[in-house]
Amino acid sequence: MSKKVLIYGATGGIGTATAKKLAARGNRLHLVGRHADRLEALASDLNATFSCGDILSEGFIPQTVRDAGECIDGLVYAIGSITLKGLSRLTHADFIRDYEVNAVSAALAIQAALPALKKSPHAAVVLFSSIAASQGFGMHASIAMAKGALSSLTLSLAAELAPTIRVNAIAPSLTQTPLSQSLWQNETMAQSIAGLHPISRLGSSEDMAGLAAFLLSDEATWITGQIMGVDGGRSTLRVKG
Ligand SMILES: NC(=O)c1ccc[n+]([C@@H]2O[C@H](COP(=O)([O-])OP(=O)(O)OC[C@H]3O[C@@H](n4cnc5c(N)ncnc54)[C@H](OP(=O)(O)O)[C@@H]3O)[C@@H](O)[C@H]2O)c1
Q1: Going along 122-183, which residue ranges are E strands?
Q2: In angstroms, what is the span from residue 241 Cα to ligand 1's centroid?
Q3: Distance CA 229, CA 92 (A)
Q4: CA-based diameter of the chain, in Å?
């Protein structure tokens, strides 16, 4: 059945791949992004509507929900930031910005969309956490904290909104998108990080989009409150002893 899906971060790597997959399956999309030219081009390709702005701008989140329409079946929050610094270099502003962009704005987006999500017979929300929320990585203190909060938000809202709205999160390991480019643009470094995964490669946006589309679909109507690793086995397996 065709669903109306609101996608935040639609011009990002994972957001775009998710939008393309959902559109190919006949869903109707409302896209949210910061860059008018890229957003307009994607919306035109996918026959979607869109809202352009910064998620932290006053009044922008309620505006995106008004623009999306009265009934929303799916919400994807694929906005994210990454601040990789040692603790002594992290500023108060770094912590607050990562927390607001990754966690608080996700909560506010779901809050604003609640009346529209409640009008859907099978509403579902997909958030993006990170492997760094459950595994300790150096230089990740700020983003790990923010994604840890997002994982907890997933559980809390899944409980609060059941059985009307399902809430799940995907926790990627290193995925080749613009966000993480500094970690994979050097071939030697990319291969070395790929080798840390039991399935020895880096993630792709399509790996994430496949699970996001499944979690939004009617094939997943008994799945809620889950934080699912898409990480080549890195968070759970030790294959080399
Ligand atoms: N890539 C990875 O290795 C990785 C690992 C773990 C978790 N994740 C999570 O996966 C999700 C998708 O990220 P991605 O890898 O696809 O990264 P991406 O390509 O950089 O996409 C992130 C999107 O967030 C948008 N964004 C950032 N700050 C914003 C703001 N203040 N207002 C509005 N939009 C904003 C960016 O907009 P612009 O296009 O305008 O910059 C971009 O579209 C994020 O939640 C990220 O934290 C990614």
Answers
A1: 123-128, 165-172
A2: 34
A3: 29
A4: 53
**What is the three-class DSSP state of 193?**
helix
The whole-angstrom separation of Cα 211 and Cα 132 is 19
Please provide the size of the chain in residues. Answer: 241
174 lines ligand 1 (CB under 6 A): yes
Q: What integer pLDDT is reported at residue 240 of this predicted model?
A: 72
Q: Does domain 4-230 have CATH number 3.40.50.720?
A: yes
Q: Is the dihedral of CA 63, 129, 230, 114 positive or negative?
A: negative
- Identity of the amino acid at 107: A
Query: DSSP assignment, residue 122?
Result: T
Q: How far is the CA of 129 from the centre of ligand 1 (A)?
A: 11
Reference 48, options 77, 89, 7; nearest CA is 7
* Packing angle, helices 105-118 and 60-68, rounded to 10: 30
Orientation of helix 205-216 relative to helix 13-24, angle to 10°: 50
- From 198, 141, 206, 118, select the one nearest 170 (Cα to Cα): 206
Residues 6+ apart with CB under 8 A from 44: none
pLDDT of res. 239: 86
Residue nearest to atom 10 of ligand 1 (CA): 128
Q: What's the confidence (pLDDT) of residue 183?
A: 93
Signed CA dihedral, 86, 89, 92, 98: sign only: negative
Structure letter (DSSP) for residue 233: T
| Residue 172 to residue 213: CA distance in whole angstroms | 15
Q: Which stretches in the chain have pLDDT values below 70?
A: 241
Cβ 184 under 6 angstroms from ligand 1: no
